[in-house]
Give the backbone structure.
Amino acid sequence: MMMAAEIANPSVSIQDLSLNFGAVSVLQTLNLDVADGEFIVLLGPSGCGKSTLLNCIAGLLDISDGRIFIKGKNVTWEEPKDRGIGMVFQSYALYPQMTVERNLSFGLRVAGVPKDEIAKRIARAAEILQIEPLLQRKPSALSGGQRQRVAIGRALVRDVDVFLFDEPLSNLDAKLRSELRVEIKLLHRHLKNTMIYVTHDQIEAMTLADRIAVMKGGVIQQLDAPQTIYNRPVNRFVAGFLGSPAMNFIDGRLEKDGGDWHFAVEDVRIPLATYAFEKEPAPGPAVFGIRPEHVAFNSGTGWPFTATANVEVVEPMGSDTLVWLKLGQQNFTVRVTSERTPKNGDAVSIGFDPLRASLFDGQTGDRI
């Protein structure tokens, strides 16, 4: 597990936060500092605690232990409206009887904000989100993407320092999700506000985040830049969660022959002379991981490792093709260009450099 790095004067600081539902521990002594203007994504499978953590930051759940600071102020027991946050939920939660303009202004009117100030904030949010032509429509006359823009606008008019997004795109189709990802990224670039975003979608996380916090069982497993997490995952869980298709995993043993380390599986020996060990290795059960795009197809000589494998399934993806192989008794996936597509049953040569691989302890799952 990778601990959160300390940040001077963080915009949001979570310190030793724990949350228990009876005897069930949901969040476990969690620490996270978010820099001012940073876009942090909380990523993980269902039930990992990411939405629960966001709700704790928002003040929608009372924590069991720890403290929460926003802009240097201890807000652990503050009401949600007093925390200086704007929140966008998975469901649009728009008032169906109100126009877009009335939906955007509702919270401001309840708070007693002057009419001219409300008008300025709505005009600004509508311009940023490109929803000016929609202001007099009701939600029933809007598409899913337009409704989500309005939901974002409702948070935007609050003019706060920190925005919280709870899986805001999960109800949209793939095309709309792609379009709104770009819009949210541009919105962050324009506003430069701190944003904390929850998703189980790794593509959203990789494309939006300055840093990703990968969560499992209420614990942050790794917190780092997207490409660092992708290339150097700290454990097998993180390695398997990021990447589509997932990283190839081969179960075997770490062995030393003379002065050289290698990975042994069945009658195959993968040399590890180019592999960068994280810590002093020891012989024993291990898992070798390599991403499908880091494998060379029909490789010639010159690779540190080559082998012959049998093609099981060919899956055309348009610009490239996924080839599912059998390497010995283990499944193996290779991403190749669409021009180099083999046929089912073909025997093919593959090669890769262990420098691009990840090696994990067979018992703990930690990176070696």
